[in-house]
Write a sequence for this structure.
């Protein structure tokens, strides 16, 4: 048996194990586990693309709601030397698995201290670091509108001016919930979508469909505005006068 075959078999076993873990955790608590399967490679590539766009510049990166680490595995090879990655995960079992992933990842040999796994809610995270890129895997449609508002505001606080946030939403969930959920649940889902739509209108710089995911998803990219310096604002006002 050659190295490729053993490596391929190992990847398949890992994916099967992650899939079962997602199902088990989703059955335990849909509020912290909003997916029924790990993110696909195509979805992970889009979510982590802003990190690669920065080239070789060291970055501060935050991943929220990392789950079993399918996006984390795509993120780690894209980190430039000197970068720091904070991973925040509310599910204790997932957080434990993420620490194992970081401790054994071959790209991090002798450098695992560049990545910190926090078992916490992202609203409570306070590392003192502003972030160039935030990658969110949180299940927004499982939260209340107020919770989504709080999380999105926290993301904007944590981002550097000009920093980028990526997150995803499953396609067709509104229609599925309309058919299967109570009226109150369907109203909550619509209200969450309206909250997110407000942030998209103000800050979105891109949106892409990922059909090769289970279920299909849509990736949003938002950017925190760069504030106009006070003197520049004065100059614009004077010119207008």
């Amino acid at each position: 048996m050659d190295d490729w075959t053993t490596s391929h078999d190992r990847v398949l076993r890992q994916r099967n194990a992650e899939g079962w873990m997602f199902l088990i955790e989703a059955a335990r608590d849909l509020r912290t586990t909003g997916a029924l399967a790990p993110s696909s490679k195509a979805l992970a590539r889009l979510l982590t693309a802003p990190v690669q766009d920065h080239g070789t510049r060291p970055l501060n990166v935050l991943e929220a709601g990392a789950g079993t680490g399918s996006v984390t595995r795509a993120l780690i090879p894209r980190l430039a030397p000197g970068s720091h990655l904070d991973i925040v995960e509310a599910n204790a079992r997932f957080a434990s698995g993420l620490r194992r992933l970081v401790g054994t990842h071959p790209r991090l040999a002798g450098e695992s201290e560049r990545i910190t796994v926090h078992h916490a809610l992202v609203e409570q995270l306070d590392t003192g670091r502003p972030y160039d890129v935030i990658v969110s895997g949180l299940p927004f449609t499982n939260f209340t509108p107020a919770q989504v508002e709080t999380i999105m505001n926290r993301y904007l606080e944590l981002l550097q001016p000009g920093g980028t946030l990526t997150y995803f939403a499953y396609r067709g969930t509104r229609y599925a919930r309309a058919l299967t959920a109570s009226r109150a649940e369907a109203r909550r889902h619509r209200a969450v979508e309206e909250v997110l739509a407000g942030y998209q209108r103000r800050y979105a710089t891109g949106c892409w469909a990922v059909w090769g995911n289970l279920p299909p998803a849509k990736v949003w990219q938002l950017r925190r505005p760069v504030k106009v310096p006070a003197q520049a604002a004065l100059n614009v006002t004077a010119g207008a006068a």
